[in-house]
Amino acid sequence: MRGQTVVCKDFTGGALIRITWEDSAALVFVHTDDQFTAHQGGLPHLAPVGFPIEDVFIYNEEAVQAPDPWSKLTPYEVNAREGRSEAIRGGSQQPAQDPASATI
Do the beta carbons of residue 50 and residue 97 sit within 8 Å? Predict the structure, then answer.
């Protein structure tokens, strides 16, 4: 779901708070807050970064501050709306190409 605050697990196991731009069955593309705002407004921006869906979680401030946040966070689900899943993980969906980030 575009615009949802999430927590992404980086390659060191650290927590990165990001905003979703697009998702697929395998990847969630995210921005920092500033880049999300620029992208949404049609301004120059960096391309969103894709994280494996298993490394993306729904933001919860209390859980993020816990010593082991990963055991307390809820995994991100494709097409999740306010905590309810409309689709389960899996399949072979590919994300749509964002015209603003396409290279020619």
Answer: no
